[in-house]
Amino acid sequence: MPRKRPSALRARLSLPQPMYAGTDHCRSRRPPRPWPTRIDRLSSRTAAAIHREESRRPYDEGLWPGATATALATCRPFLALPGRRLYLQRDYCACEQCDLRNDVAVARDLLELAVHRLPPWPRRELEALLAWLDGELWRRTVPDPFAHRQPHRTGAWWHRRLCDLDHLL
What is the pTM of this model? Predict the structure, then answer.
Protein backbone atom coordinates (compact mmCIF):
# COMPACT_ATOMS: atom_id res chain seq x y z
CA MET A 1 0.00 0.00 0.00
CA PRO A 2 1.55 3.34 -0.98
CA ARG A 3 2.12 5.91 1.69
CA LYS A 4 1.66 9.66 1.50
CA ARG A 5 4.66 11.78 0.74
CA PRO A 6 5.91 14.00 3.61
CA SER A 7 5.28 17.14 1.56
CA ALA A 8 1.62 16.13 1.13
CA LEU A 9 1.28 15.66 4.89
CA ARG A 10 2.90 19.05 5.61
CA ALA A 11 0.63 20.78 3.09
CA ARG A 12 -2.40 19.27 4.77
CA LEU A 13 -1.24 20.51 8.19
CA SER A 14 -0.76 24.06 6.94
CA LEU A 15 -4.34 24.44 5.68
CA PRO A 16 -6.39 27.07 7.50
CA GLN A 17 -8.35 25.71 10.40
CA PRO A 18 -12.15 26.10 10.38
CA MET A 19 -13.60 28.72 12.71
CA TYR A 20 -15.99 27.67 15.42
CA ALA A 21 -19.06 29.65 16.35
CA GLY A 22 -18.61 31.87 19.35
CA THR A 23 -14.92 32.62 18.84
CA ASP A 24 -15.34 35.77 16.72
CA HIS A 25 -14.37 38.00 19.66
CA CYS A 26 -11.10 36.15 20.25
CA ARG A 27 -7.80 36.68 18.53
CA SER A 28 -7.17 32.97 18.42
CA ARG A 29 -9.38 31.33 15.85
CA ARG A 30 -7.92 27.86 16.03
CA PRO A 31 -10.07 25.04 17.33
CA PRO A 32 -8.97 23.44 20.57
CA ARG A 33 -6.44 20.68 20.04
CA PRO A 34 -6.54 17.30 21.73
CA TRP A 35 -4.15 17.08 24.63
CA PRO A 36 -0.63 16.08 23.76
CA THR A 37 0.81 12.69 24.48
CA ARG A 38 4.10 14.29 25.51
CA ILE A 39 4.97 17.50 27.32
CA ASP A 40 8.35 19.00 26.51
CA ARG A 41 11.02 18.57 29.24
CA LEU A 42 8.86 16.23 31.32
CA SER A 43 9.05 12.46 31.47
CA SER A 44 6.30 10.35 29.96
CA ARG A 45 5.37 9.18 33.45
CA THR A 46 4.82 12.76 34.62
CA ALA A 47 2.95 13.67 31.43
CA ALA A 48 0.67 10.67 31.95
CA ALA A 49 -0.01 11.70 35.56
CA ILE A 50 -0.80 15.25 34.43
CA HIS A 51 -3.18 14.03 31.73
CA ARG A 52 -4.82 11.63 34.15
CA GLU A 53 -5.41 14.45 36.65
CA GLU A 54 -6.64 16.84 33.95
CA SER A 55 -9.08 14.26 32.59
CA ARG A 56 -10.41 13.30 36.00
CA ARG A 57 -11.49 16.82 36.98
CA PRO A 58 -14.60 18.63 35.75
CA TYR A 59 -13.88 21.64 33.53
CA ASP A 60 -15.10 24.15 36.10
CA GLU A 61 -12.43 23.11 38.63
CA GLY A 62 -9.75 24.88 36.61
CA LEU A 63 -8.07 22.01 34.78
CA TRP A 64 -9.04 20.41 31.49
CA PRO A 65 -7.18 18.09 29.11
CA GLY A 66 -4.20 19.95 27.67
CA ALA A 67 -4.32 22.90 30.08
CA THR A 68 -0.87 22.28 31.58
CA ALA A 69 0.77 21.92 28.17
CA THR A 70 -0.93 25.11 26.98
CA ALA A 71 0.23 26.99 30.08
CA LEU A 72 3.81 25.82 29.57
CA ALA A 73 3.55 26.78 25.89
CA THR A 74 2.57 30.28 27.02
CA CYS A 75 5.43 30.72 29.50
CA ARG A 76 8.30 29.40 27.39
CA PRO A 77 7.94 31.74 24.36
CA PHE A 78 7.42 34.71 26.67
CA LEU A 79 10.70 33.97 28.45
CA ALA A 80 12.45 33.40 25.12
CA LEU A 81 11.70 36.95 23.95
CA PRO A 82 14.79 39.08 23.34
CA GLY A 83 15.68 41.93 25.60
CA ARG A 84 16.87 42.36 29.11
CA ARG A 85 13.54 43.22 30.75
CA LEU A 86 10.13 41.78 30.01
CA TYR A 87 6.75 43.22 30.90
CA LEU A 88 3.77 40.96 31.45
CA GLN A 89 0.96 41.26 28.94
CA ARG A 90 -2.53 41.51 30.41
CA ASP A 91 -5.39 40.43 28.20
CA TYR A 92 -8.87 41.57 29.06
CA CYS A 93 -10.82 39.49 26.58
CA ALA A 94 -12.58 37.63 29.42
CA CYS A 95 -12.24 34.46 27.38
CA GLU A 96 -10.41 31.69 29.23
CA GLN A 97 -8.48 30.57 26.17
CA CYS A 98 -7.25 34.09 25.36
CA ASP A 99 -6.27 34.72 28.96
CA LEU A 100 -4.32 31.48 29.12
CA ARG A 101 -2.56 32.00 25.79
CA ASN A 102 -1.65 35.65 26.33
CA ASP A 103 -1.25 36.27 30.06
CA VAL A 104 1.74 34.61 31.70
CA ALA A 105 0.35 35.25 35.20
CA VAL A 106 -2.83 33.31 34.38
CA ALA A 107 -0.74 30.50 32.88
CA ARG A 108 1.44 30.40 36.00
CA ASP A 109 -1.69 30.23 38.20
CA LEU A 110 -2.86 27.21 36.24
CA LEU A 111 0.54 25.53 36.59
CA GLU A 112 0.42 26.12 40.34
CA LEU A 113 -3.01 24.50 40.46
CA ALA A 114 -1.71 21.51 38.52
CA VAL A 115 1.27 21.13 40.88
CA HIS A 116 -0.95 20.90 43.93
CA ARG A 117 -3.16 18.22 42.40
CA LEU A 118 -0.41 15.85 41.29
CA PRO A 119 0.94 12.84 43.17
CA PRO A 120 4.35 13.32 44.87
CA TRP A 121 6.72 11.99 42.17
CA PRO A 122 5.28 13.90 39.18
CA ARG A 123 4.84 16.95 41.42
CA ARG A 124 8.57 17.07 42.14
CA GLU A 125 9.43 16.89 38.44
CA LEU A 126 6.96 19.63 37.50
CA GLU A 127 8.14 21.77 40.43
CA ALA A 128 11.73 21.45 39.19
CA LEU A 129 10.67 22.73 35.77
CA LEU A 130 8.65 25.53 37.36
CA ALA A 131 11.61 26.52 39.54
CA TRP A 132 13.61 27.26 36.40
CA LEU A 133 10.68 29.14 34.80
CA ASP A 134 10.10 31.13 38.01
CA GLY A 135 13.78 32.03 38.24
CA GLU A 136 13.75 33.40 34.69
CA LEU A 137 10.46 35.22 35.27
CA TRP A 138 11.77 36.76 38.49
CA ARG A 139 15.05 37.77 36.88
CA ARG A 140 13.63 39.28 33.69
CA THR A 141 10.51 41.06 34.97
CA VAL A 142 10.34 44.16 37.14
CA PRO A 143 8.38 44.37 40.41
CA ASP A 144 5.49 46.82 40.47
CA PRO A 145 5.94 49.17 43.46
CA PHE A 146 2.26 50.14 43.40
CA ALA A 147 0.75 46.66 43.13
CA HIS A 148 -0.34 46.72 46.77
CA ARG A 149 -2.71 49.60 45.95
CA GLN A 150 -4.59 47.60 43.32
CA PRO A 151 -7.04 45.08 44.80
CA HIS A 152 -7.02 42.85 41.70
CA ARG A 153 -3.24 42.35 41.93
CA THR A 154 -3.30 40.10 44.99
CA GLY A 155 -2.08 36.54 45.05
CA ALA A 156 1.27 35.11 44.11
CA TRP A 157 4.36 37.17 43.38
CA TRP A 158 3.96 36.94 39.59
CA HIS A 159 0.80 39.06 39.82
CA ARG A 160 2.81 41.89 41.33
CA ARG A 161 5.14 42.44 38.36
CA LEU A 162 5.00 45.41 35.97
CA CYS A 163 2.66 45.04 33.01
CA ASP A 164 2.76 46.51 29.53
CA LEU A 165 -0.70 47.93 28.86
CA ASP A 166 0.19 49.70 25.58
CA HIS A 167 -1.20 46.84 23.50
CA LEU A 168 -4.69 47.45 24.95
CA LEU A 169 -4.91 51.06 23.76
Answer: 0.74
